[in-house]
């Protein structure tokens, strides 16, 4: 902004958006914070009283709490690993000119258009089902006994489903990055005697660093809140084997009707998410400048 | 050593023949310039030699060895690209070290060669910078440094100066010529700029639509162009070409007179005309003479003291000994 007048005008013009955003953010956060210090159960709403730190203490001493945090970490890291590695691989494959490139690219992107509960239902009933899923048919074809995925590997199953959904996003971002790689650099490296693997390590990967950072940051934000896939498939079970933090809060609020406890869990989740965000920005954010 | 021989080399992209079969000998230590208008196939020819494109026909021999099916890395050639093609996330030092790292050259040998190249190219102060922090000329020098440290049998330059401004281009032109004098390694240089070709080359290869029009030293091409195309392409300003009656007088289909071989007079001469534009460069004056009835404009190069202006009437007289004659198909008549 060139002059003082335009600067103050600009501040005035931005104000409504910023104020609205603050209201949208602060009121729910404040209410959650307030509820987290109350004994507030929907089964007995008349009997609401001040609880102090009891809700936090209760959440913290719940053995499911640490299991849920661990599951959240495994879920996020697992999906990130699969989508970033798989995304790079698929992006490099469909970057090459091939027959039917347009259709192949659309097919690769399409899982992203399927709503999470629908995707989870398809995987549950048509792919991973122990008696009429595709995986069961394949196992039977090879003479092996079918695996009951959601009973035996509940968290892995959810990781696979979520990774399938997010792979297109990673592929798309990484493909655009790959397409901006200078062809002459690749040729120069070829003349410099670099074999394909070295060219990938020294040229392609550093070139894609920024895109990989974007994929990791955006996906982490969404993966911390995975909920629909768990609800539709395992319902957090068996036991707490596939319960993440989001699903634990849902259990407290909607299955136990414990608003106070759920709010405390929510606040803990917000703190953890901020912790992860700071850590991530420190670790990979330098790629973004 | 760096003797490169092309035997019947041809390149087709699908049905389109970009380079019809051609033969060419490049001697060890020569500075050869491929020159021609854009789209004449000169870059493609260089890429064929480099191994970045596969030949459709013929053989490429490097030092007598058949290298037609060798990978680019195995041919022992180094290339400097038009866009420099530096690795953006590596420092200058790492850029220069990259080919040696790939060839697994020992670390202290690497350092020795990097320091020598940096000293020769005035890059010592910039070794820890990234390419993005360098100017165009410095980037160009890094690209050359990356080529030098490989100690190749020949250097390939693909229009290396076209991204630089005019003053820098003249400087780099000198530096590359000096480099050639010092290293005495074969260099193949592609350009569309005939001034670069004339000033740097031991041997110029003029290409037109994929065909070699003439091969020779700069002076040979200037004094005895083999055909009308070479005559018009080599020399600056361009040769004046006349056809029709004027040419018939000399028993040719086309005649050519270089601007420096036409005399100007305000009293009388062979052809009468009117000065259109006059460019005073101090050392020379370029006159663009119109309304001669021979060609749209005739370019004349005269000495710097000539004080002719737009609209002045002048008489032009060509130097009869320096007239080039060409027949119907454009070939030279002696």
From TrEMBL, chain A:
Superkingdom assignment: Bacteria
Location within or outside the cell: Cell membrane
Residue ranges annotated for the ABC transmembrane type-1 domain, each copy included: 69-280
UniProt cross-references to CDD domains, sorted A to Z: TM_PBP2
Main subcellular location of this protein, as a coarse class: membrane
Keywords attached to this entry: Cell membrane, Membrane, Transmembrane, Transmembrane helix, Transport
InterPro entries found in the cross-reference section: MetI-like (IPR000515), MetI-like_sf (IPR035906)
Transmembrane segments: 12-37, 68-94, 106-123, 155-176, 208-228, 259-281
Topology relative to the membrane: Multi-pass membrane protein
Family designation: Belongs to the binding-protein-dependent transport system permease family.
Name of the protein in question: Sugar ABC transporter permease
Species this chain originates from: Paracoccus maritimus
TrEMBL record, chain B:
Every ABC transporter domain range: 4-234
Keyword terms: ATP-binding, Nucleotide-binding, Transport
Gene3D superfamilies per UniProt: 2.40.50.100, Nucleic acid-binding proteins, P-loop containing nucleotide triphosphate hydrolases
Origin: domain of life: Bacteria
GO molecular function per UniProt: ATP binding
Pfam families the record matches: ABC_tran (PF00005), TOBE_2 (PF08402)
Name of the molecule in the record: ABC transporter ATP-binding protein
Organism: Paracoccus maritimus
């Amino acid at each position: 902004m060139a002059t003082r007048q335009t600067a103050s005008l600009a501040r005035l013009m931005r104000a409504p958006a910023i104020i609205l955003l603050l209201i949208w953010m602060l009121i729910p956060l404040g209410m959650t914070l307030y509820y987290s210090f109350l004994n507030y159960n929907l089964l007995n709403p008349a009997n609401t009283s001040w609880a102090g730190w009891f809700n936090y203490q209760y959440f913290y001493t719940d053995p499911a709490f640490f299991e849920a945090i661990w599951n959240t970490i495994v879920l996020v890291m697992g999906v990130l690993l699969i989508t970033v590695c798989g995304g790079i691989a698929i992006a490099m494959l469909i970057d090459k000119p091939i027959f039917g490139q347009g259709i192949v690219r659309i097919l690769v992107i399409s899982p992203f258009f399927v709503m999470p509960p629908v995707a989870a239902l398809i995987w549950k009933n048509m792919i991973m089902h122990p008696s009429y899923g595709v995986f069961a048919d394949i196992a039977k074809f090879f003479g092996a006994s079918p695996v009951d995925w959601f009973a035996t590997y509940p968290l892995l199953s959810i990781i696979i489903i979520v990774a399938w959904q997010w792979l297109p996003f990673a592929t798309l971002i990484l493909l655009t990055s790959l397409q901006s790689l200078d062809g002459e650099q690749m040729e120069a490296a070829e003349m410099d005697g670099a074999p394909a693997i070295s060219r990938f390590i020294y040229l392609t990967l550093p070139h894609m660093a920024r895109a990989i950072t974007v994929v990791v940051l955006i996906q982490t934000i969404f993966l911390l809140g995975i909920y629909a896939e768990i609800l539709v498939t395992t319902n957090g079970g068996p036991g707490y084997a596939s319960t993440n933090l989001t699903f634990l809060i849902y259990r407290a609020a909607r299955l136990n009707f414990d608003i106070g406890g759920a709010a405390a869990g929510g606040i803990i989740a917000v703190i953890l998410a901020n912790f992860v965000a700071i850590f991530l920005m420190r670790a990979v954010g330098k790629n973004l400048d | 050593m760096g003797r490169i021989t092309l035997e019947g080399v041809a390149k087709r992209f699908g049905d389109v023949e970009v380079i019809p079969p051609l033969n060419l000998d490049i001697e060890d230590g020569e500075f050869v310039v491929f020159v021609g208008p854009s789209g004449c196939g000169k870059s493609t020819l260089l890429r064929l030699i480099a191994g970045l494109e596969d030949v459709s026909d013929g053989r490429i021999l490097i030092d007598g060895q058949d290298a037609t099916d060798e990978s680019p890395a195995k041919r022992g050639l180094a290339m400097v690209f038009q866009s420099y093609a530096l690795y953006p996330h590596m420092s200058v030092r790492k850029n220069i070290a990259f080919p040696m790292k790939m060839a697994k050259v020992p670390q202290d040998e690497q350092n020795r060669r990097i320091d020598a190249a940096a000293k020769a190219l005035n890059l010592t102060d910039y070794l820890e910078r990234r390419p993005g922090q360098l100017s165009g000329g410095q980037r160009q020098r890094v690209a050359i440094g990356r080529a030098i440290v490989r100690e190749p049998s020949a250097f390939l330059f693909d229009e290396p100066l076209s991204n630089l401004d005019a003053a820098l281009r003249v400087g780099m032109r000198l530096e590359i010529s000096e480099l050639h004098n010092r290293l005495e390694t074969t260099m193949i240089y592609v350009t569309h700029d005939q001034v670069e070709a004339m000033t740097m080359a031991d041997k110029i290869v003029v290409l037109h639509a994929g065909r070699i029009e003439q091969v020779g030293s700069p002076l040979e091409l200037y004094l005895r162009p083999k055909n009308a195309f070479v005559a018009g392409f080599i020399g600056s300003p361009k040769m004046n070409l006349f056809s029709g009656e004027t040419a018939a007088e000399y028993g040719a289909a086309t005649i050519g007179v270089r601007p420096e071989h036409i005399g100007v007079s305000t009293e009388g001469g062979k052809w009468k005309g009117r000065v259109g534009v006059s460019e005073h460069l101090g050392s020379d004056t370029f006159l663009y003479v119109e309304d001669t009835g021979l060609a749209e404009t005739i370019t004349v190069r005269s000495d710097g003291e000539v004080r002719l202006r737009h609209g002045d009437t002048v008489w032009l007289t060509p130097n009869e000994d320096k007239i080039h004659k060409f027949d119907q198909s454009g070939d030279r008549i002696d």
